[in-house]
Amino acid sequence: MFTVTGKAEEMFKLISRWSSSFAIAVTLVLGTLSSTAARAVDLNLCRPPASSAWILLPEDDAPHDVADEWYYTTGHLRTPSGKRYGFETVVFKVKGQSGFVTIGQVAVTDLNDRTFHFETLGPVPGPFPTSTDGFNVEVTGGVSMSMLSMSGDNGSYHITGSLTDDDGSYRIDLILYAVKNPVYQADDGLIQYADPPSSTQYYYSRPRMAAFGSVTAPDGTTEVAFGQSWFDHEYGTLPQEINWEWFSIQLDDGREIMAYNIRDAKTQTSYAKFGSIQDPPPGCRVQSLGELDFDMSFENEITGRQTGITYWNTFGLSVPSRHISLTLKAELDDQEVFTPDKGLPPYWEGSVKVSGTVHRKPVSGVGYVELVEYQAP
Question: What share of the chain is helix, strand, coil (3-state, %, to 5)?
Answer without folding.
Answer: 10, 55, 35
